[in-house]
Amino acid sequence: MCSPRGSLTEPSLLTEGLLDELVSSIRGQVYQKGDPNFVEYTIMFNGNVETIGQVVVCPLDAEDVSEIILFCRKHAFSPSVKAGGFGTAGWAVGGDIIIDLSKIADADIEPPNEESTFTSIRDMAPSNSKGKGKKPGVNAGKRRREDDDKLRTYQAASGTVAAFLRGPSRSDLPPPNLRRRLNESADGSHANASDTSVQLVQNIPTTSPGSDVDAPNVARRSNVESTPDGNIGSSNAPFNADPFGYLEDHNHSSYSGRSNFQSTSRTLYGSWGSGSNSAGSSVAITTAPTVLHSIPSQTRAIHTHAYVTFGAGMRQKEIDTFTANNPLRARSISGGQDTVPYHVPFAAHPAGSSIMLLGGFGFLGRLYGLSIDNLVEVEMVLADGRILIVNENEHSDLWWALRGAGPAFGIATRYKAKAFPIPVVFAGNLIYRFHKATAASLIKHFRDCIKNAPRELYANVLLTAGPAGKDSLVVVQMCYVGSREKGQEYLAALASWDGEKCLLNEVNEKSFLHQQDSVAQVLRGKAGRQWFIRSALITSLPDDIIHQTVLKFDDTPIGCTWLFELAGGAISDFEDTCVPKSQRETLFTVAALHQWDMGINDPRCITTAEDWIADTLKPVQTGGPFPSFLGRHEAPSRTISSFGSNWDRLKEIKKIYDPTNVFRNSLWPLDAEGNIVEASTHEPPTPSAAGTSFEVLLKE
C-alpha cells in the first residue's frame, strides 16, 4: 500500500543495528541525522526545500551505490540521489536514505581512438580505485558547502557586467521616446557611426571593480556608442531596415580588423547634482575579465570532437573547468603547434551532472544538440542493484529512456559524453532599462533579428526585476561560437534597436568557460533563497503575446526573471531519445525564474509565473518543457506532456527496469501501480521558516 508520499511502504526507522549494517556494507561515509555533516550535505540551492531523510551516504563508486540500493530494498527505505543539489523540486533530498554522489568525481578527456570511437567506461579504472578503506569524515560536509560557494561566484563572466550591476540605482525618469535614435546627441545631431568617441553622460563617483560597495544613484541616462575596438552600441540603419541586410556589404566599416581579448564597452558620466565631482568625467564601468588568457582564436582543432568521462558527483562548472584546463593539441594557422579547449554541451552554470539525463540546453545546443544528445555511454545502477554499462548497442531500450527521464530509471554514476573544440566565443550582453512602453519593441526587434540565424548563434532576451532600489532590466544575450570577425555582424543587427539608450554593451571575444557564468551573473541568483521555476516550449512569438508578456511582467515582484531562448538548430536533428520531435522543433524555450528571500510570503512570486506560462503562452505552447526545466509542485500532466507521444513507451520501459518504483524520488509522476501521484505528495516539504504557501497552486 502506498504511503502519503508515494512510497511502497511506510518509512522504516533506521535503528542502530541497521545503521551498522549500512556502514559496514560500503567504503564511503555515512552521516546520520543530527551529525553536522548531515545538515551540510542536505542543503539545497532552493531554500524552499527541507529534507525529512534519516541519513546521508557518500558512496565512492558504483559498487557502493549498488549496496545502498540493495539495503534500501531489503529494509523498505526510500532512496533519493543528490548530484549537485540544484534541482528546485527537491527530489534529491526527498528519500529516507540520501545518496550524495559528490565523492564520485573522477574526470578524463581523450581524443577519438584509431577506430574513431572511445574507451568504454568498463575498460577504465573504477572511481576512487586508489582509495583504500574509509577516511575520516570530519567537516567533510562543510568543505563540500565551501566548494559550492566558490563555484557560485560568477565575476569571471564579465567584470564590466559585475560593476554595472553593483552601481546603478533606480531611475525616476519617464521612458524615452520610442523612436529616439541610439546615436542621437543631446542637441539632436547624429554622431558618425565610425566615430570612436564615447558620449559623456552624467557622472557618478567611481568604485573599484572589485569593491562590494554600491555606487550612488546612477546618472539620469546612459549610453554606449561604438568604441575604438569595434564594439557597436548604435546604428544608422533605417527604423524598418532588414536587420541582416547589411551582411551583403562586405566592406562593413565597424570591424576594426584586429582582435581584442578584454571587455571594451565603457560608460562615461558627466557631472550630476550639486555635489558632483569637479573633475568633469570619469570612467564608471571599465574592467577586464578576472582572469586574462590568450584566447586561441587562430587555432584549428585536430579532432572534430573528444570524449570526456566524468563522475556523477562533478558539478557542471567543475567539468567545464577540467576540460578548459586540459586542452588537446591543435594547429596554429601559422603552422605551429597549439592547444584548444573542448567543452561538453551543457546548460549554463550552475547545474549538477544530472542535466546529462534530463535535457540540457545551453550556448552550444543549437550547434551540437542537448546534453542528452551528446551522451555516448553511462554507468548506471538499477533498482535491483545491477550495475550496467548502457549505450546505443547495449540495453538500447534503457538507453532511449534514460536520455530525458534517466533519474526515474536508475542512478548514473559515471558519464561519457562528446566534447567539441571551442577556442573562442564572441559573446556577452546588451543591457537596457525596462520600460513598459518600449520593452515590447525591443523583444520584437530581437525576434526579427534572429530569424533564420545560423546554428552557431545562441541568443536570448530576458526581463529581470530588481533587486530592491535597482531598475528592472531587459538583457539581450548572444553567444556566437566563432571569432569576432563573424560574430560582429550579428551583434550589429541586435544592437541596431533604437527605442532606448543601451546602458551597457560588453559583447566581445572570451573563453567559453567564462561565458558559461553569464546567465547566473545577470540573474544575481543566490543559494538559499526560495526558487520557483516554470517553463514552456513555444512554436511562435506573435506580437500580441509579446505585449501581454510585457504588461504582466510589469506587475511581477522583485527577483523575477522571464526568459526567451532561441531553440531549434541541431536540437531537432536527434530522434532517438524519449524527448519527442514535437518538443525539439519548437522556436523558443521560455522560462520564468523566480527567487525571493526566506520568510516572505508573496503569492505573486508563484502566481505570476503560473499565469504567464499557463495562460499567456498557452496559444503557442506545445507539450511540456524540456525535463530539465520541470520545477517544484509541477502538475503531473505537465510532466507527462514533456514526453508527448513517447509517454506510453516510457511507461512500459519503467515496468521492466523499476517495476516497484524504487526511484520514485524523481520527476516520475506515477506510483508503482501506475496511478497519478500529485507533486505535493512526492516532494519534500517546505520549511516553516520559508513563510511560503503553495495553496495558490491547489486552487487552480
Automatic annotation (TrEMBL):
- A UniProt-annotated Pfam family: BBE
Matching entries from Gene3D superfamilies are given as:
3.30.465.10, 3.40.462.20, Uridine Diphospho-n-acetylenolpyruvylglucosamine Reductase, domain 2 (3.30.43.10)
What is an example of a GO molecular function annotated in this UniProt entry?
FAD binding
- According to the record, the residues making up region (Disordered) are 110-150, 163-238
Q: Which UniProt keywords apply?
A: FAD, Flavoprotein, Oxidoreductase
Cofactor(s) this protein cannot do without:
FAD
Compositionally biased region (Polar residues): 191-210, 224-238
Q: Specify the FAD-binding PCMH-type domain's residue ranges.
A: 239-422
Family indicated by similarity: Belongs to the oxygen-dependent FAD-linked oxidoreductase family.
- Give the PANTHER family listed for this entry: BINDING OXIDOREDUCTASE, PUTATIVE (AFU_ORTHOLOGUE AFUA_1G17690)-RELATED, FAD-BINDING PCMH-TYPE DOMAIN-CONTAINING PROTEIN
Q: What is this protein called?
A: FAD-binding PCMH-type domain-containing protein
Organism the protein comes from: Lentinula detonsa
